[in-house]
Design goal:
single chain; 27% helix; three-stranded antiparallel beta sheet; two-stranded antiparallel ribbon; alpha+beta; 5 strands; 11% strand; 4 helices
Length: 150
């Protein structure tokens, strides 16, 4: 029993009352089942050759995003493939490597401004150069330099 302003009140039958302007309840996320997310693990050669379908047949262990096994998504400059002996055509990247790792802009300027520089042949969107024409261009540069030094 509680005494309120001179009257006796029976508090055992009273229920708690929510305030009219209560603060909004804070919504929380339910806890994750597995807080540590395992990403694709690096697969070994044994995993790649395994035909069981579990583990590393495609570099994917079933958890996280799939990872491609090829050379895709590799950003930045790529090293040119070496020119094989007896090659007739080489790519523009191989031409740039042949002249000391020059830039694509250097090659564009050589094609458009230097009349002696061999012009490319396009196979679709690939810019290809004749190795024989590049060799004659190089011999011409060497003969000019040797003739100027004498």
């Amino acid at each position: 029993m509680t005494k309120l302003k001179g009257k006796l009140l029976d508090t055992s039958a009273m229920q708690p009352v929510e305030p009219r302007h209560a603060a909004p309840a804070v919504k929380t996320r339910p806890p994750r089942k597995n807080p540590v997310v395992k990403r694709c693990s690096a697969s070994t050669a044994d995993d790649r050759n395994d035909d069981s379908g579990v583990g590393g047949s495609n570099g994917h262990d079933g958890v996280g995003p799939k990872r491609r096994m090829g050379k895709g998504y590799k950003l930045g400059p790529h090293t040119p493939k070496p020119v094989p002996d007896g090659a007739i055509w080489i790519t523009s990247t191989q031409v740039l490597a042949r002249y000391g790792g020059k830039s694509q802009m250097w090659l564009w300027r050589k094609i458009n401004r230097d009349d002696a520089f061999p012009k490319p042949v396009y196979f679709g969107r690939l810019m290809m150069f004749s190795v024989a024409e590049l060799d004659t261009f190089d011999r011409g540069l060497i003969s000019k330099r040797v003739g100027a030094e004498r």
